[in-house]
Write a sequence for this structure.
């Protein structure tokens, strides 16, 4: 399928927005579960968003990028939805993502 760069960018942006909305609706899925299964989490997405904004010369704070992904202040999300990681989850994270 041949598509032009503008259309590709629009499609990729739509997919990103859809992924973010999906993650917002699945607040039962913990970040550590995402990290252990997929190698990235909501925080990764927010960090990548901030990095790309800065690469384009747009100022974006860590709090702003996290709110863009979480749909609310990060501390609010944590206190409302984040559970305590199990010893098994922590061990899996340490093994798979020692540098994260």
């Amino acid at each position: 399928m041949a598509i032009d760069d503008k259309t590709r960018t629009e499609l990729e942006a739509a997919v990103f927005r859809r992924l973010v909305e999906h993650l917002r609706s699945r607040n039962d899925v913990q970040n550590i579960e995402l990290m252990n299964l997929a190698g990235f989490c909501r925080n990764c997405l927010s960090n990548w968003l901030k990095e790309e904004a800065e690469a384009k010369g747009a100022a974006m704070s860590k709090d702003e990028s996290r709110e863009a992904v979480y749909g609310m202040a990060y501390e609010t999300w944590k206190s409302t939805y984040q559970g305590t990681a199990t010893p098994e989850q922590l061990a899996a994270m340490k093994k798979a993502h020692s540098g994260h």
